[in-house]
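// run 5 | inverse folding | seed 20
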């Protein structure tokens, strides 16, 4: 696991200095080692967190005649199998590092090497023979890679903050990206919040020809979901056995390490499934969890129950409110780009706690997207029934009653969910899903954004996410699952894991997103995922006997923090300062009265505006740290 960066083109001395600054900006990603080269007008830099071949895996790594150079962030889980193929083809290796496989593999197979890789990765190749640079990112987007094209110069890095070290790149906010952030609570690839800086999308390569400024993007893989819901010729018991086998093998592949490793254990089904497979594989499992003082947010008892059931060496950190609040000033550095998911704070604290004991931690991320685990999926199915109910019943009884429910600030309170449901149920699937998952609807964003930003949006085009809406699928639930994979998983869940774990210099792995498990899960009929309103149907069935029934049957709970209460208590004064009319007017992004109304309604208790206010609060903190305060 590392941080990588580079510059192709431009003044060599300026490039070398810039790469040095970019490496310094991401020491947390690789505190163990630093490396770099400058060849043929290309400067490559790397910070290394040593996991495999600790002594010999220094980067950049080259092939036999030094015509191919590679830097990588991530792990290639099938590197031993690829090494055998390459050795039999005549290649000579000098290290045991998985990164060296990329150098020889590129020489042997060219750009198509990405189709052979099973791993989480973002890497750069300097091909001196063909005079080109190749950037590549893994299938699901587990590892990040940002880039900017500046004339005949290409600049790239693992983190946005590294590219902001380049004085030639402007720090202007992209109004379309800001609109996307307000809608979704994150900025989806290929955009970033900064105009002119892009994210390489998952399962893509970028070729850059030196000296020409010409580049080409290519998608090498795309997720597909099984549309047929008929029988597959297997019994349910056979399906369960197949799932356990693929899951066990996926976990086994991701246990490769020359340093101690453990597992994030929340007590939810996904992390418990990964922990159970680690136990079955004979690994002495160290598990890690956090507990919360606020009861409606705490699920540590479930993690302890699973740990006791599986016999893991369990470690728990209890989070006091002060520990969470003390991180608020550090949010800009932690986030790298605005992200409205407040759970990044406990995720970082869990990562820092875990890093005291191990250097690698597996987790259960991806299971909800693959197996229809989110409550919103059930809500979409309910919406079909709700919309068929008589209009008089919906408009005359249900919606007025829901609208009068008293405001509760507890985690995932009934009134919060009910009001969200009725506000979005009548909309088309893609719009409904965004309303339920995001912060601001289209009409709310129009009222919130300043007239200047609205004018810039009108001139530059509005949010266009239709290619990510999953509209090509016939079943609306599959459409939702594909949207979650393309949007929420990549741009929220995996970004949160990467930023939080790497800020703690911990490698986070996601075996449920291993190539083999994703291929298996996406080919399953929808009835194996959502049966009626029973989510994760096959996964839960396959885990019977491996995990306690109380874990398999418990309702899902998010990994949240008490933001609603904080804004009325310990964060009130800071929120009032950050979102003050004077600051809002000075920066010019938002309409002052619209922001003041959101604040006033929340403080009075008339509405629970936690999501909207946190989304704005985080953006303003980030902007202070990265742009206006830079």
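// decoded
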């Amino acid at each position: 696991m590392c941080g990588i960066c580079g510059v192709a083109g431009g003044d060599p001395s300026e490039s070398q200095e810039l790469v040095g600054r970019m490496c310094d900006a991401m020491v947390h990603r690789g505190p163990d080692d630093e490396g770099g080269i400058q060849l043929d007008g290309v400067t490559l830099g790397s910070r290394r967190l040593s996991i495999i071949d600790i002594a010999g895996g220094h980067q950049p790594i080259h092939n036999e005649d030094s015509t191919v150079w590679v830097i990588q962030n991530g792990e290639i889980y099938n590197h031993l199998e690829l090494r055998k193929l390459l050795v039999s083809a005549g290649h000579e290796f000098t290290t045991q590092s998985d990164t060296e496989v990329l150098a020889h593999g590129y020489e042997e197979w060219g750009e198509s090497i990405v189709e052979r890789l099973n791993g989480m990765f973002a890497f750069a190749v300097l091909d001196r023979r063909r005079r080109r640079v190749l950037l590549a990112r893994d299938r699901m987007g587990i590892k990040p890679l940002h880039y900017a094209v500046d004339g005949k110069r290409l600049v790239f890095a693992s983190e946005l903050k590294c590219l902001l070290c380049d004085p030639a790149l402007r720090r202007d906010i992209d109004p379309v990206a800001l609109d996307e952030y307000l809608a979704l609570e994150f900025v989806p690839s290929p955009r970033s919040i900064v105009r002119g800086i892009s994210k390489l999308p998952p399962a893509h390569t970028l070729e850059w020809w030196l000296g020409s400024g010409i580049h080409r993007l290519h998608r090498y893989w795309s997720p597909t979901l099984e549309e047929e819901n008929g029988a597959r010729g297997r019994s349910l018991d056979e399906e369960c056995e197949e799932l356990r086998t693929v899951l066990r093998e996926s976990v086994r592949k991701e246990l490769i390490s020359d340093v101690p490793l453990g597992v994030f254990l929340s007590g939810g089904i996904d992390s418990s499934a990964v922990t159970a497979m680690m136990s079955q594989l004979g690994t002495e499992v160290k598990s890690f969890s956090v507990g919360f003082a606020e009861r409606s947010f705490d699920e540590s008892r479930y993690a302890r129950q699973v740990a006791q059931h599986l016999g893991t060496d369990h470690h728990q950190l209890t989070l006091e409110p002060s520990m969470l609040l003390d991180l608020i000033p550090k949010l800009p550095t932690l986030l790298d780009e605005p992200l409205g998911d407040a759970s990044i704070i406990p995720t970082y604290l869990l990562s820092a706690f875990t890093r005291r004991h191990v250097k690698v931690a597996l987790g259960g991320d991806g299971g909800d997207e693959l197996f229809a685990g989110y409550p919103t999926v059930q809500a979409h199915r309910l919406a079909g029934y709700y919309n068929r109910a008589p209009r008089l019943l919906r408009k005359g009884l249900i919606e007025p009653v829901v609208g009068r429910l008293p405001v509760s600030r507890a985690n995932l309170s009934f009134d919060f969910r009910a009001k969200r449901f009725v506000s979005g149920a009548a909309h088309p699937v893609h719009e409904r899903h965004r309303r339920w998952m995001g912060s601001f609807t289209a009409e709310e964003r129009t009222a919130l954004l300043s007239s200047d930003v609205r004018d810039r949006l009108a001139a530059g085009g509005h949010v266009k996410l239709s290619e990510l809406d999953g509209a090509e699928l016939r079943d609306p639930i599959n459409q939702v699952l594909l949207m979650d994979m393309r949007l929420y998983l990549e741009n929220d869940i995996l970004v949160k894991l990467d930023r939080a774990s790497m800020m703690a210099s911990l490698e986070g792995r996601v075996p449920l997103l291993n190539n083999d498990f994703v291929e298996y899960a996406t080919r399953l009929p929808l009835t194996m995922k959502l049966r009626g309103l029973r989510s994760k149907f096959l996964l839960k069935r396959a885990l019977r006997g491996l995990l306690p029934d109380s874990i398999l049957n418990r309702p899902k709970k998010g990994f949240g923090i008490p933001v609603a209460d904080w804004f009325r208590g310990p964060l009130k004064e800071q929120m009032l300062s950050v979102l003050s009319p004077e600051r809002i007017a000075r920066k010019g992004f938002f309409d002052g009265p619209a922001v003041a109304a959101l604040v006033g309604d929340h403080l009075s208790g008339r509405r629970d505006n936690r999501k909207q206010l946190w989304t704005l609060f985080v953006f303003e903190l980030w902007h202070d740290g990265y742009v206006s305060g830079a």
